[in-house]
C-alpha cells in the first residue's frame, strides 16, 4: 500500500462524513473524480410491483429440508449441550458403521466356507 | 447505507432477534434495506432485470440464514451487501450480464432510470463496467452505499489496506476514462 492510497482513503472517509477536506496538489485530481462519482450515482429505489411481490414471496411459509430441521434442533439446544450432543451423534454413527462392517465381513466368511 | 447511532443499532439488534423468533418480522428488515440493495445491484450490473434477480436472491439467502445470524454490533445491511456482492460475483462467472438495448428497455422508466439513459450517466456506467469486479464493488460501496473503509473491508472480507489499494486503483482508472470536464464539479 502506497502512502497515497492511505491519504486518499482518509480524505474520503472525512469527505463522506461531511467534513471539509483540503487536499494537496497530488490528492486533488483523485478527490475530484471521487466527488464526481459521489454526485453522479443516484440512489435507485426498488420498483413496484417487484418490491411488494418479493416481500409477499418471502413471507410465504417454506418447507424446511431435513438437514435444516436438524440444524434447528441443534440451535435449540443450550450452548453447553451442543458438543456432547454432537459427540453422541458421531459416536452412534461410528458404532453403527462398525456393526454393519462386522456383519458384512462375517457373512462373507460364512459364504466362503459354505461355497 | 444510513449510518446508525447506538440507539438505532440497539433497535436493529432487537428487530433481528424478533425476526429470528417470528419470520413474519423479517418484512421490517426487508423494508429497511431493499432499496439500498436494489440500487447497489442496479449500478453494479447496469440492468434492472439483473438487479431484481440479485435483490431477490440476496433476501432469500438472508432469510434462510436468519436463524443462525449472530449479532456483532454491525448493521444488518453489511451482511446484505456481502450476500449481494457474492451473488453478483457468482452471476458473472456463470454468464455475462445482458445489457438492455434502448429499444428493449421498459417504456415506463422513472426519473432515476433516466440517469442510465442520459449521456453522462452512460459514460460513467461504461467506465464503471470496464473496471475489474472487486474495484467496482469497492467504489459502489464507498460512493453509492456511503460505507467507510473499515465497513467495506468487513463486507468484502478483505484487509483495510487491500480496500485502500482497490479504491485508489479504481479511482485512478476512472480518472483516465472520464472526460476532464465531466469530473470538474
Descriptive report:
The complex is a heterodimer of chains A (115) and B (185). Among the domains of chain A are: 3-40, no CATH class; 78-114. Chain A is an all-alpha fold. Chain A contains five helices and no strands. By secondary structure, chain B is an all-alpha fold. Chain B folds into two domains: 1-96, Orthogonal Bundle (Rna Polymerase Sigma Factor, Chain: A), CATH 1.10.1740.10; 109-178, Winged helix-like DNA-binding domain superfamily/Winged helix DNA-binding domain (Arc Repressor Mutant, subunit A), CATH 1.10.10. Helix content of chain B is 71%, strand content 0%. Chain B is built from ten helices and no strands. Chain B has helices spanning 6-21, 26-45, 48-64, 76-94, 111-117, 119-129, 133-143, 149-156, 160-177, 180-183. In chain B, helix 1 packs across helix 2 and helix 4 crosses helix 8. Chain B is globular. Residues 93-107 of chain B have low confidence and may be disordered. At the A-B interface, helix 1, helix 2, helix 3 and helix 4 of A face helix 2, helix 3, helix 5, helix 6 and helix 7 of B.
Q: From the helix content, strand content and strand pairing of chain A, which structural class follows?
A: mainly alpha
| Integer-rounded radius of gyration of chain A | 32 Å
The succession of helices and strands of chain B, N to C, reads HHHHHHHHHH
Name of the CATH architecture of the largest domain in chain B = Orthogonal Bundle
Individual helix count of chain A: 5
Reported for the largest beta sheet of chain A, the result is: none
Summarize the main sheet of chain B. none
The parts of chain A where pLDDT drops under 50 for at least 5 residues are none
Order of helices and strands of chain A: HHHHH
Mean pLDDT of chain B: 80
The oligomeric state is: heterodimer
The low-confidence runs of chain B, each spanning 5 or more residues with pLDDT under 50, are: 93-107
Helix content of chain B: over 70%
Q: What's the overall geometry of chain A? A: elongated
Span of the ends, CA to CA of chain B: 24 Å
